[in-house]
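[job 0412] stage=fold_complex status=start
inputs:
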Amino acid sequence: MKKDLNLMVAGPQGSGINFTSDTFAKVMARQGYYVYTNAELFSTIKGDHSYFRVRVSDQKIESYSERVDILIPLDAKSVIIHKGEVSDDGMIISEEKVDDKRFATISYRKILESVATKFNKNVSELNVMKNTVSLAAALKIVGIESKNLKDVITENFASRKIIAEMNNAVVDEVYNEFSFNKTFSLPPVEKKKRMLINSAEAVGMGKVLAGMKFQSYYPITPASDESNYLETLMDKYGFVVEQTEDEIAAINMAIAAANTGLRSSTSTSGPGFDLMVEALSYSGMTETPVVIFYYQRAGPSTGMPTRHEQGDLKFATTASHGEFPRVILTPGDNTEAFYDAVDSFNIAEHYQLPVIVLLDKSMAMSNTTTEVFDLSGVRIDRGKLVLNETSNYKRYKLTEDGISPRTVPGVKGGIFTIAGDEHEEDGHIFSEDPDNRIIMMNKRMGKMNLILKEIGENKKVKFYGKPENKKVILSWGSPKGAIKDALESFPDISFLQVRMIEPFPSEEVMKYLKGKYVIDIEQNYSGQLADLLREKTGIVVDSRILKFNGRPMAYEELMDAIKKAQTEKKVVLSYA
Amino acid sequence: MHNTYKTNVEIDWCPGCGDFGILNALTLALQDLRIPNENVVLTGGIGCSSKIPHYVNVYALHTLHGRSLVQGEAVKMANPELEVISVSGDGDGLGIGSAHLVAAGRRNLDMTYMIFDNGVYGLTKGQASPTLPYKENIKSLETENIKFPVNPIFLALASGYTFVARSYSYNIKHLKETIERAIRHKGMALIDIMQPCVTYNNINTKEFYDKRLYDLEASGWNPVVNKGDDPSVKISQAVQRSMEWGDKIPMGVFIQYERETYAERLSTLIHGYGTRNMVKEPIDQNGKPVANIQEVMESFF
Ligand SMILES: Cc1ncc(C[n+]2csc(CCOP(=O)(O)OP(=O)(O)O)c2C)c(N)n1
Ligand SMILES: [Mg+2]
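[job 0412] stage=fold_complex status=done
writing structure:
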C-alpha cells in the first residue's frame, strides 16, 4: 500500500476553501510529491457546505481516499459532518478545545491579533486570513518549511504586496506559536517539476498547440472553466473565444468558423449539448470538421450541476436524427485529455466530420500532478484542405476514400455550396435523386470503417495488467484513476480502458475480453458501456460496479466493490 | 452586362414569388460593387427564401432553420476580409432565430442581414409568421391570426443595429440601392424586405404594398447620425417612424450611425486581430505545430 496523506478542507462555499486546498496542493507538488485533489461544491456561490480533498503521496496517485488525516474545518458544521472520516490518529485543526485527542487547537484570534498589531490594522480586517492560519498549521504538521508556503503566497498575491506580507506574517506567527504532539511524515522525495493541472487546463493547452483559432461557448458548469482559461491565452496566441447568446449559437458559430477555414471548437455540458444536437447532425451532413468538448455532469435536466457523472455515453453516440459518422474520444486523465485535444482536430479535419471528446466534472475540477507533455511526437494533419486557387471545384466530389478536397471562402475558383439538405457533388439540393442519396450516404458512412482501419490500437483501447489474467475490468473515462489505484491490490485482474467509443473498436475490445470474467465499472446508473459492448460485440459483462450519487469513486470503496464483483452481478457504490 | 453573380441552378420558387425580385436586386448590387465572387459569403437558413444561396455565385452556406445570421457572424469573425451577407425568412429570423437577431445587434459586426418578410412560413405551407398582422385571416390559415406581430424595424433599433432599413421586392431599384448602402455601411445592417407570397398570403400582396409604401427619405427623413453626435436622439425619432403601419407604410433607411464594430472591439482583446488573416496563417510547419506552449506548461509548476 502506498504511503499517503489526506487533507480535507471543509466549510461554507466562498469562505476560501479552495484557496486553502489549492495552496496546500501547490506547496506539496513543488516539494516533488504527487497530488490528487477532489472538489465537492454546491451549485451556489456562497454559503452552502463544500469540501475539498487533497491526497499527497511519494508515489503516483490518481484518485482520492476515504481516509482523512488532517481536517481543516472552516465552520462548526464541518466538524460535525466530517469528524467521522478523520482517522483515529488523524488531526482536526480547530480553534476550540474539545475532549477528543484528534483535536489540535490553535488560537486564530491570538495569531491574527498579533499580526494586526504589527501592521497597525484592525483585527477584523484580517479575518479573511483565517485560512492562512490553518493552512500554515497543516503544512507545519506535515513538516514543510515555512518558506515554501510563503513563496507560493507571494506569487499568488504578486499584485498586492501588502496582502502577501500580512499573510506571510501570519505564516511566521503560526510556525512560531503552534506546536502539536503528532506529525505525519511522508517519505522524502526528490524535487521534480510537474504541472498541477486539471483536464480543462490540459485541453486548453492541447487546443492552443493544435492551432485552434475559434472557440465559442455559453457558460455552463463544468465546461466553462476551459473557455475561461482559453480567454487568458487568446491575446498571446491570436485566437478568438466568443461567449455566445446560447449553445445553439455556440455550435453554429463553431461550424461556420470551421467552414471558413479555422480550427474551431465549442465546449459544453449535458444541457448545452442537448441544444446543440440539431447542428451536430448538420455538421455530419455537411462534412464539417468541428470539435465538441463535452464535460458531463449529473443529469437529467439541470440535475446536480456541480456533481460528477458519466451518464451521457449513449446519448453522445446517438444524439441527432438521421445517420452520419462521428468520432467520440474518451480520455481518462489529463495527459490523455491533452493529446486527445490535438488528435480531435486532426481527426475532424482529416475525415471531415464532428468529433466529440467526452470528459466530466471530476476531470475538469480535480487538480493532479502531471508530467510535462512530451511534444516531440505531436503532428498537425489538416487533411484535404485547399487554400490556393483551384478550378472545376465541387465540395462533395466523390473520391476513392469518400473524403473530398475542402476549400474555404476567399479561395479563387473554389466557390462552394454547403447544405444540410441532401445534396449532390456540387452541394446543390434540388434533385433528391434516390440513387444520389445512396451514393452520398455511402460516401459519408464509409468514413467509419476507414477510421477503424486507419486509427491505431493505442488510440482506441489501453490494456493494463497481465494478458493471461482471467478477470478484466472494463471502463472508460475518469474512473481510470481509481481503478488503477485499486488494482494495485489485485495483480490477478487486468484493466481494459476504452479510449474511443465511436466508431466502436469491436475487434480490439473482443481481443482483450473474449472468454474473460468481465467487470464493468462506470459512473452511471445502468452501465452504458456494458450495454454498448453487448450491442457491438455480443459480449455480456459478468458484473457491473456502478456509482451515481454525484461523487467520484474513492479507491478504497472500489477495492471492496471489486472483491464483491467477483461473485455479485451488480455492486452500487455510495461513498461521499 | 452578363450577371456573373447568378448560378445556373434551376430556381424552385413559385412563379411570381417576391423572392425573384430580391435575387435580382442582390446580384445587381454585387455586380455594381464589383466585389470578387470568391470574397462574398452568403448564408441562408431554412425556408423558401433561405434557398437563395444556391442561386448566387458566391461562397454559399445553406444552414439550419434560424441559424443563418449566427453562422454569418462567425464567418465574419473568422475572416473579417470577407463580405458577409445573411438572409432569412421572417420565420427564420424573427421566430426561431430571434435570439441571434438580438445578439447580432449587440456585436455590430460589419455585415448585412436581409429578412424576406412575407407574413407566412412559406415552405411549410403558409402558417402565420411573427410579422403577420393581428386578426389577419389569410387564405392559408384556418382561423384569424390571434397574435400581435413583431416590429422588425423597432426590434433592430432596440438591439443596436447601426443601419436599419425597409425595402420592397417589387421595387428593384430601391432595393438594390438599399442593399448597396447596407453593404457599404460599416457595421451591422438590417433590411426588412416586404415580399409578397403569391401562394399563401392573399392580403399582403403586391397591390397591398404598391399603394401603401412611400419613400421615407424622399419625404424629408434624414437617417444619418452625424459623426460625434449621440445617436439616441435620432434612434428615438426612428422608433416613432417605425410605428407607422396602415394606409401609409414607410420604406427606406430609418437609421444609420457609426459605432465600434465587433472587429474593433475584439482587437482590443486580441492583439493584431483583423490585421492578420487567421485563415491563411499557418498553424504547422511540415506537420509540426507552430504554437509554442512551453511557457504555458511551466506556468503550472
Ligand atoms: C428546427 C426546424 N423546425 C421546423 C422546420 C420546418 N420549417 C421549414 S421552413 C419553415 C418556415 C419558413 O418560414 P420563413 O422563414 O418565413 O421562410 P419562407 O419559407 O416564408 O421564405 C419551417 C418552420 C425546420 N426545417 N427546422
Ligand atoms: Mg416567411
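[job 0412] summary: The pocket of magnesium ion (ligand 2) is lined by residues B 47, 89-91, 118, 120-122, 129 (CB under 6 Å).
[job 0412] exit 0
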